[in-house]
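Query form — protein Cobyrinate a,c-diamide synthase

QUESTION: What is the three-dimensional structure of this chain?
INPUT:
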Amino acid sequence: MSLMPLPSSRFLIAAPSSGSGKTTLTLGLLRALRNRGLTVQPFKCGPDYLDTLHHGTAAGVPSLNLDTFMASEAHVAETYARYAAPADVAVVEGVMGLFDGADRMRASSAAVAELLDLPVVLVVNAKAMAYSVAPLLFGFKNFYPGIRLVGAIFNFVNSASHYQFLRDACQDVGVEALGYLPYNPQVAIPSRHLGLSIDAGIQYEAIIGQLADMLPQTVDLDRLLEITRGAAPVPAAVPAPVVPTDRPRRFAVARDAAFTFTYHQNLQVLAQLGEVTYFSPLTDAALPPATDLLYLPGGYPELLAEGLSRNAAMRASVAAYCQRGGATYAECGGLMYLGQTLTDAQGRTFPMAGVLPCTTSLENSKLTLGYRTAQWNGMTLQGHEFHYSHLTELKEVLSGARVTNAKGVEVPAKVYRQHNTIASYLHLYWAENPAFINWLLSLPANP
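ANSWER: The structure tokens for Cobyrinate a,c-diamide synthase are given below.
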């Protein structure tokens, strides 16, 4: 006789729009529930790799991305089930507004909630709103029958009497009021670009701890767990990626304050294919020995350009590896690091690794953002593009590569290749397509 999964609480934290404070609230919830001795598994809708970093700090375990543009629905459902099944509580943070997707609702928080049958808790910025929140809640509750809006938590509430107006609105609409957070500048985390900052000078642990202490005073956590309780998902069996050789490959992955933009699922694929060693371009003197594939992910190299440039030994080690034909994959910040120079927003120029014949700059910066599909060599890979820097054009474009946006329209983004170095501004999600890593490993020694 098979055992039925034990009941657990699972829900999606959404908002009417960005800037409602859902990430701050999510961080407080994760830590407050963890403080109760519960095992808490965080997830993030969409391609965001900044919020997942903060989730990990709050929950003590890695946060997983759930994105139905970058991955198939089956892959998203399997990822969610595998990591949520052993947890007491699964908390999925939405992206932007509840219904905002790559193309209408596609890849939106609502799409993920429907796919995974997750009850939705709406976080509403009530700073300048009282009973008028009623039609807003009514609209979000009734707009799309595929989701279940079960409760609301209000942010930036001025007082208990202010909250009473909001409770009245919830009662009249049929959405349960679960509590509120008062405005408190001491627990505000500054934003950088489109995500919360990862500035090392911000005391994240102290802020998250304070949030966790505040929440139970005004948010009914017991009721939240009660109305979101249900059977835990059952993970499906998934075959391990095929290892192309009879020996594990060695992957060198840059990870420090300058290179932090990674997807946990991508790194898990590397760990299944071989041995992963992390190194720091800021502080280490050389690449790990016997590297088979060098991975330089995105990050904020522009904020630490002076330190990266000062580490001449590492720059020389990376350049020597690439120049002798070592397989290398660099995305966004990694691309910037492999260029000749990097110019920051203040106009200061720093030498970089000098592998690629290009320069990058943050002067006169302009945001480039959006989902992307890249096709070449019979492969199709999804990801997204998100950067403010620009580069002098490279002529070494990967033959046959084509990049389109979420609507299938070709975009200027390019995939570059020099020797066995593949680089672009794209952040690719290969967790569902480990053939991409095997292709990188199979690049000929003399292309």
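ADDITIONAL NOTE: Confidence is low (pLDDT under 50) at residues 1-6, 192-197.
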